[in-house]
Amino acid sequence: MRMLAAVTGAVVLALAAWPAAAEVAPARQAKLKDMVAQDCGSCHGMTRQGGLGSPLRQEDLAKLSAEAVIETILEGRPGTPMPPWKAMLSREEAAWIAAYLMGELK
Amino acid sequence: MKRLAATVLGLGLGLGLLSACQPVLRGTGDLGLVVERADGRLMVVENSTSTKLASVSGLGDLSHAALVYSRDQRFAYVFGRDGGLTKVDILSGAIAGRVMQSGNSIGGAISQDGSLVAVANYTPGGIKVFDAATLEQVADIPAIGADGKASKVIGIADLSGRRFIYSLYDAGEIWIADLTDPKAPRLTKHTNIGKLPYDALITGDGRWYLAGLFGEDGIALLDLWNPDKGVKRILDHYGKGKEALPVYKMPHLRGWAVAGDEVWLPAIGHHQVLVVDKGKWTEKARVDVAGQPVFAMARPDGKQVWVNFALPDYSKVQVIDTQTKTVIKTLEPGLAILHMEFTAKGERVWLSARDSDKVVVYDTETLAPVAELPAVKPSGIFFTSRAGKTGL
């Protein structure tokens, strides 16, 4: 029973992430993955365990909603070095990155 | 007689079979290290031939890795993001020692006498100090600010004596740790220096320590020849300014920014490099550049300053003539230029092109590329000539 609930949960999450992911072309997805590792990695660590920026491991982000993560990517965090990335990323791309970080995409 | 026989054999076989057990003697002054950050690996490179001599792997997470050299220029102390401190023997291309000293570190420094290595940590914050010979921990100094909270430590540098200077990012303080007696470190604290010092530099003469502030405009300055005068605020216009532009990569400050009696500083967020009078600490000029500068590095003779940029302009590098204060050339050496390093006398500069997976070497007079080395996602480049310089 518990397993069924977990499976249903996973399906719902996958469905929620699906539309955003579908709008980012595979070649761009590869670029975004690279950007997460290399450019986000400069502050958050290439293995995402944090640095000047906060850690971005799946368990660190679990307490946040996908929407909150997307907003942070696009708008930054005023008062901290986290810049708004909206000049370089579309909302769909930020959604794809949020899903990728939160473990909903491989 | 035995020695003669060995010499004859050595001459006869040259670099052949015998080299494994009887390495040819050589110095390290022509050598350096390139960080291949995604693979936790270092390349041992040679300036004169622009070649790789060896690879050293097993260094952990090297995103944002930095290193310092022993004073004999044989060993490098590598500070990994995962908190690893690794001592690398560049002559043998092997790891000579490694400790996991914290959860998360940002950089380090080696004492003036070469006996102590200090590591600046993000998590749990503070510094740890190690015996340079054995990597045995000799001191652990937490960075609890006046606010009572643990702080990330940035901008660490060596001072005269067995002293280190560093800044507390969260608390906004500058501390000096005196390890003359490592068992009882003496701390001098300067509080309220400004919000969020993100990096700092010490001039090569060891006199001036400048901490850039991210949380407000200006730079915190400490005159180490007159420390009693305390921390002074300079360059009130240095910073993000009224229209705070997004900063896509934090600028880096080090003593390499000094060219003659001028200090060249990357502006924060703005597409400019600032020229500051060293001593008066007033702004002399601003030079417009192609993007948000990350490193502004003076050629060792001070005649040129080379600048690289944050994304999206990070595939360009600009060369500024320091006399005319104009950009004399815009180069595109490869994709995502993360770092630059001049040879000791500055005739060449090496640039890491992360997304082109190569290191490119330029002649600094002709401003033309002269060599290329394949490298996997290269970041920092460090030549052994740093060993004799304060703050590097």
Automatic annotation (TrEMBL), chain B:
Any idea what this protein is called?
NirF protein
Against SUPFAM superfamilies, the record matches this protein to: C-terminal (heme d1) domain of cytochrome cd1-nitrite reductase
Pfam families hit by this protein: Cytochrom_D1
Which InterPro entries does this chain map to?
Cyt_cd1_C_sf, Haem_d1_sf, Host-pathogen_enzymatic-act
> Do you know which Gene3D superfamilies this protein is assigned to?
C-terminal (heme d1) domain of cytochrome cd1-nitrite reductase
